[in-house]
């Protein structure tokens, strides 16, 4: 595209194309060819980020093909919501892939990123929240972060959480994963002064309404500094935490 | 009624009434006259409980009339959701009435009940929750309970709550009042081993949805021993706490 | 930890550590090590309560491991939402475990608690509500309570309920379990003067919306003295009833 | 229109129009002109029913004009949700109009209908439900029904309701009006064997959600023979009860 | 029970039992035996109504036992939401039972009731609504009603419905069954002057939200004379229609 | 019916039937026979539209029978939400049927319609939206439209969408298919000046609530010219687009 | 901007700026200035469309300023949701503005557009729906369309609607406005073969939930060819109808 | 407290208190006195943060008192949701207070913080979103951040947003404020690689349901790196953005 504009300007310079014709041609250039190199190159700048595949609803065969394609161009790949079958299909085209069963994630980490300075702490309330917590932790790790875990510290047993006050306070970014009433995000948010990414989970039953109770609780947190992602969206929380943890410009 | 049946049986015994006629007459006795003396007298047994009027949606004139009527038969009266106008109307027929502006309650406590042994502790999260908290506290007081208050101890400043751990642990029944995310009920529930009555309030905005977030949070509490009442229902919580606090049979 | 503090104080006593250094070291001790003996020991005081496992979402193998661990330290164990497979896994590590199929509960009751004085009455509306009702009843029993059952007394056949008025009135705490419209809690609440724990169930279809109708009905009960727990939360209701039924302090 | 068809058939008879042309013309007649005399005349048959105006959202001036128009053709008129201002505007064009302040209804009953045989009983739970209950009662009355009222018999004081069992059982159709938890419909439905029209009201607060709790409760009624109308729709309930109470064909 | 009271009265008459003993014995009779003969006998009066079992959530074995028990005392039995397996279990104890596969109903009609005078018309919108429509129709039939069916007349093809205007107008009670937008109830309600029982079905997808759209549509019907039952509650609609269709008292 | 009216008019012409008798007979003809030829013939005018079967909830056998019947009268048939089994059943009676696996559609296109002038562009956000997008595209095609596809152009990668600005601007009607947040409809609606039919899909999880998020997003679109259909209703969108794309009258 | 580019190209032509410098300057121009002439000019093409202001939430003063600004560049202006005060403020800067009180719209139509060929028919159910219907009608008119109105034809009085079948069938686009149950859209959609834009209104009460019932009803319409806009969005419906009614490209 | 411990340790040192007694006394100290200096001092570390008052629901008098109290200890104060009356009351005790009418905020900025390195960009969709956007911007500013604003760049006019691509890309943290469909967050999230804080607003009507549509849209954003706060919570967004923008530890 650059070339195309260059040729046009040269033609104007050389008098082969009039100014009026030139303006007409500029208008006709497709949108992307003008401005959107600009749009796209921010991806290039961040090229070390892994390529991501959301496997839910895709067949192992489809996943295998997508990973096969990506593996040619990317060093690092992250497949979320991946079944064991999906993993086995992936291994055929990408033998170095590793499977994290609890998080249901497949990780290809050929060229690990240099670690960011701060630590990301993933805190979770109950054992049933672990898959989402691990999804967040692994996502943050492959994006170049030191991740610590603080699991099974629900608010009904406050002393378990408070015993780790130092760990909470040392983290640069916190991801708080909780289902049921989701109160952990508010409690943690009140104890720290760094950003808290809250992840409601669908863990619970009855008036939990598939995570709605935790979601609303977190959105209404009286603690400042809490941002919320979608129910069960461990990946999104891990990614947001990673972006925050990057060195500021 | 007992008399009525007795006479009937005597008449049968004396042959003045045949068995068939007797059966017919038994059927004709109104329902209440048979079984429902029994239904009703449990109220008589508990006659020291105050009579209660829910003022919302009633005119001061209507409230005045109702209180005027009750004041003839009851020692103690509790008018909830009462405006200042309602209070002034009540004073005309019941000069000893007192107004609790914050709780929007009018109290007539002519014959204070003997105090129950245990203490009821009313805990609230934010200042905006105070009207509901006071409604609960005053209700419990007029029903013969020692009530302590622990206000402004929301979970975002956990140390304020934990500084009163002894108070929390000494209470026999706890009423926890919180809006927004309502997480306080879970935290308190995890710190004590006595019953917690949770009252969600409509305090908040946005995804609070008029108290829904606090309600769902409290229903999904991971702490055992928490029972929930309707949004903003301080009266109901105070009453339930009072009933629990009565000496067991 | 106790040891750690003891040594510190001895060192101060012996002049090996100055007062200032001692204060510094006290601050550095992890949170739990200072205050939280105190936080934790309320559990110790109540040590006769059974340990509880919520089995839903755990594999039989996981459940077996947890029970195996708990069985070393606890006399009494309660596993809720347990399938037959879970029970069989538990029996391998804990042969005295009993299975209550209807309530889907496994009970290990090695050292039955002394019975509280009052009676807990579990009332249920329809046969489909029985699993939740039994969950509540069994929970209350293992926590040391005399439990009576009054089942299949839905409000559409009021005479069945009223025939047991004496039983209702004699109970110290009542648990009312109902699905569909959940009206039983209000009716029972109007007949008794002791606390009523209402448990909405997800029994029903259509505009029941998985228990929402019963939940809202119970929260809006016009009867005083009703506290509500989560939909289908028989365990929570049983536990709250048991705590209420303990002798007041 | 009748005339139009008549002329066409006469023209065919007289040979001025061929059969084919006649068929063509029949097709061209507007829809109503062919078949819909038939559609409409069922209204004619029922001409004694009052004309009804829903006043909410209309200005007194608009209401006055509509009533003025109707008053020329109808004997009986019913204006629902009418303010006092609306009533005063109506009186200018219809001096015999009466105002029922509680029900917010204006009634013009120039030619009272002959009474149907059965009785309609309107039952209501609390005093705040009275406007809706009266709306139902007055609607049924103007449609030619004997209406009895049984008010303030909420389920939390069951004995008040049961004291009137005979009245409940004698009614041919029952309208049950209740807010908050709406349990009255189920209880009444279980006591009678005639149709129950349930009207949820928006009376309540918090988790009542403007009548949703009562609505869901009534829709999920475990009692057979209950049909539900919209929240606060006293008019609709009265009308449905009246239609049911008409002598069967 | 009648017998029991009779014997008691005879014993009093014969002097075998004193009046005081008689009163004592009367008190001891369970509630129903005193007052609830009256409560209960309305069922006796209507004894031809079939006994009803809601099979959903019961095992074939349980259903078989219940039917076996009922078959000893009742002439007519109706089992709703019955699978083929349930039917086969029922046949073992009740060989004359018939299965209506579409309606998922088992019918035992040993002593058909005399037919009521009016006709009940069951109208349905789409083929997917047929199971619910048939449930309503069969329920009404076994309760002694002449039932006509008008199926597949959804509002998107209005001419199909209007072609049967006479049938609609001749019916004494109408049951209208519709999913998706549920508009059929309003349209039918506007065409007839007899009661319409509207049954929303869960037929549809997306913003149907399992029948919510049809339910809300029917509750908001601008046609007078429409009562609504729960989503998919064909049985309830059939029963309400049957009760309405009985000759008025 | 035409015949019936013809005979009647002939009889009038021949004097065998008087005008009055003729009018009487016209009234007696069933509704459809008078006016509804007219109602129906708009379908006749549009006879090239395919007959449509919604297969969800029907057995392959039922589908086969319906298609077998339709295949005698219609040239073109469209079966939506059809499984492979349904397709194989259809092929037995209609061997020329084709199966579009992704769209879950069976198409019988014996007599392809002449193409409308404008182009319909189907735009979709993610790969998981493809089945709905294809349902829309295939529906529009069989109804005689030139359809272009622009897939996988979600708003998170805006450059992919903007690269096809010309395609977007050339389309006469656009169908925009998106799940999750459904923002694509607003963005596309802001870029074009022709009608946009927005189809929310149920693709997503958590606070997506089965398509509710995309539905609400699309209904609240700040772009003018957007009409919304039901969640996942690709067929409805394709049909509406096709109707819009027909040449205006 | 055009000027800016022109000058740049002229400078290149005249050799005052090199090609390289020219490219650099092109890149520096704000995005819109390069590519978005193209993005924007589709608005230019449609320049006869009125400028639109949504007045709700703006002060009369703010509205006056905006209109004053627009009035300098646009011939036609449409202000929706405008109060009388807003209108009076507008008149000060734009004396030719007209106020449509019912639709709450201010119209400045200095240069009426040439009329499109087809007719847009706005159909509404009840009188309370008129403001929304008029908003749609006036919007369509100012955008150059022949608009007909068919008001007060709710489905409960079907004959009123059917009497205008010809009008319905002659329309090229239909806008159907209905509150309460919103069934009119389905009925109209079944009678015509042209696009139907359905506008749910918030007219109603109770289970209408501020328009939710009508919205869901319309989204679930079983009639093909219905697109839905937001509740009360008469403007959006009018605009979509106008765009559809434009001659196809 | 420090003193209390000091004295205790000195007493041990001096042999006045034994080690065992010392341990006993340590246990008896209130919770806060031991560990919670530690809990609290993280606030001390961050003491430059302004004190915050949420004014909604407080009287001007109450606000004045709180500010008067805070003004003695804090340099900087932020009062959100403050009316003009509130501001005037504040000025009496704090004359240097400034009022930001649009944001409804009162700011006391006696000792402005040193600016963080990165820039926070606040982006908003429509003019009605400005109060929330300004609330976020002013909050971030008083917390020591360089804030830029990019307003009125809704997705329906994409070119307005894209014209500022450089600004978007240069920001270190972005706050995106949007009502109605809330799509702006996804679009911005797709264009940048830094954290996006999304604030749904309650701007809109109808199916917006007071901000629900924007909230769900943002939670379901397909763009990574988006965290959501409560509806209309500009303050929370500003604060979270400020915390993120602080230099990492």
From TrEMBL, chains A, B, C, D, E, F, G, H:
One of its GO terms (molecular function) is hydrolase activity. It comes from the Bacteria. The keyword Transport does not apply. The keyword Transmembrane helix applies. Residues 118-249 form the PurE domain. GO terms for biological process: 'de novo' IMP biosynthetic process. Keywords: Membrane, Transmembrane, Transmembrane helix. The chain crosses the membrane at residues 171-192, 212-231. This is Nickel pincer cofactor biosynthesis protein LarB. The gene is larB.
